[in-house]
């Protein structure tokens, strides 16, 4: 039985060629001004063959999202195997995230112009981005699960993986706009906020924190509710 497109060794090489070509053209021409025909011509392929592997530019970007996530997972294995405290596990995952995406800084700035549109399928919150978003959220669940000093209320623990994913997206957004040498401002922000998050989590079991924690979690639940009739 023939394997699906891109699943053979040659197919994977072809997919990689198309993706790398697309990323190059996105950087040079911008996302909106790059066509599938231009990608095919630059890759030395027919337009039909290119569509065989990727149905659209959006699918190419989703492949990029997934590839960077897989690259990140690979370098977090050592962190999650050796670090045992919540603070250091989260710090390690965030450090490796910034290291993994750094080569794509210029492209991320180009892509942001489109991905920032709430209606865009490239938006990290879109349905199309769902699979990669869910896998990334699972990574933060593993950060918590393997922490020997994990001690927090059950209601907070249930919400933390998604909240940590949102936090990491905030750091990525700051990184996209960071023009400091070596993205030093992003690194400083990440290091300090990881310490703050670990400290807040450690305090979450205190009785005085109960009302605040519950109010925050109620707000999170309300924000998940669908908006009806255009009301806020």
TrEMBL record:
One GO term in the molecular function aspect is: DNA-binding transcription factor activity
Family matches, as SUPFAM superfamilies: Homeodomain-like, Tetracyclin repressor-like, C-terminal domain
Whether Oxidoreductase counts among this entry's keywords is no
Where in the chain is the DNA-binding region found? 35-54
Q: Which residues form a coiled coil?
A: none
Report keywords, A-Z. Answer: DNA-binding
Origin superkingdom: Bacteria
Q: Which Pfam family, any one of them, does this sequence belong to?
A: TetR_N
UniProt cross-references to InterPro entries, sorted A to Z: Homeodomain-like_sf, HTH-type_TetR-like_transc_reg, HTH_TetR, Tet_transcr_reg_TetR-rel_C_sf, TetR_C_23
Q: Where is the HTH tetR-type domain?
A: 12-72
Q: What is this protein called?
A: AcrR family transcriptional regulator
Organism field: Longimicrobium terrae
